[in-house]
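Lecture 7, part 2: worked example. A protein chain together with pyridoxal-5'-phosphate.
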Amino acid sequence: MNTALAQYDPQIYELIKQEQTRQSGSLRLIPSENYVSKAVMQASGSVLTNKYSEGYPGKRYYEGQQVTDLIETIAIQRAKKVFKADHANVQPYSGSVANLGAYNALLSPGDTVMGLSLPYGGHLTHGWKVSVTSKFYKSVQYTVRGDTGRLDFNQIEELAKQHRPKMIICGATAYPRTIDFSQFGRIAKEVGAFLLADIAHISGLVVAGIHPSPVPYADIVSTTTHKTLRGPRGGMLLCKAEHAASVDKSVFPGLQGGPHMHTVTAIAVALAEADTPEFVAYAKQIVANAAALAQKLMEKGFKLVSDGTDNHLVLIDLRNKGIPGKKFAKALDRARIETNYNTIPDDPAPPFNPSGLRIGTPAITSRGMKEPEMAKIAEYMAKVAENIDNESVIEQVGKEVLLLCSQFPVPEHFIKPS
Ligand SMILES: *Cc1c(COP(=O)(O)O)cnc(C)c1O
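Predicted complex, written out as structure tokens:
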């Protein structure tokens, strides 16, 4: 396949090679990113990309579904098994569309929703002002506490009682702590709201039993498939049996046309991988690495939102370092350390140049890095921070990073389906 690409389109072939080199020669600390296995990559690049399959297994609008029906059924069964859910829909194109699918399943336009505000760690699709989720629905936003960096269930309960949302959304994109889904379940029940739990970031940890599952409490659970779950880019909805029909109808024909069957195929493979002791060990190591990285960063004088982490993610408050998030992220990138600048709770700086940096360990853990490497990474980051305007030091750190990367080749991990 690579030969065909090299011959037919050498320009794009070269660029893919460049990206491959870049991904293997840098420390990829963006917490939403990962490296998929060879098996997932193969499934994702398979002939299933050629097939249209509008509808669901056994109820399609096009012929030739002898194989797709089997594949999608397997993906659904595996999703139900690993998440212990009544029902699964594996067709959403991505996490954002999965969320829209959940909204569309349970709400009518104009209904009130309540989600975590974006600058406090929520996602665009949780009702942020530029998102259609605040244009089609009335949006109320809760926050995390500025002083502790943690969710404040008193505030959430008060807001819920005051605004009586039809749906509460919990889950986050930049929250380093365990989310107590039972509290959200209690509040949703109290005000008669549906509960949508968006576990896009942590679904791999949930499958592995490292983070509590929202499945017992939420009407619908949405997730991406490409973050800690380590599958292809995609989305998924899990729900209670009573919502199964409306969720399916909402995704197709409500929101999407034909599912991306090559992605559904790769999701099936990723779910088999996630259902192994090796994956549980991987998820445990993600969290152990994040804890070690957090500890070492604090020893280097970095201030962390909530003073640590319970999950895969660390949010650095850079104000005591006097370095804006964007400047630090760009300097780190020159040192082959990929991160993203991010707002922190109650951020005094504007959102396009916020005071924080968001990092995570899913991708570097896929490379086999462990606690000793976390200490090195914290050292590199501190060195860049201390020499933020010294390009030769930054370049030197980049060389050390490259050496470290060469000792942990990009994974070719293939976890045998059990
Ligand atoms: C990443 C993310 C999404 C969106 O996923 P996309 O695949 O980028 O559309 C939704 N919700 C949360 C909490 C996320 O972190």
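The chain has a mean pLDDT of 96. The two ends are 29 Å apart (CA to CA). Keep this in mind for problem set question 3.
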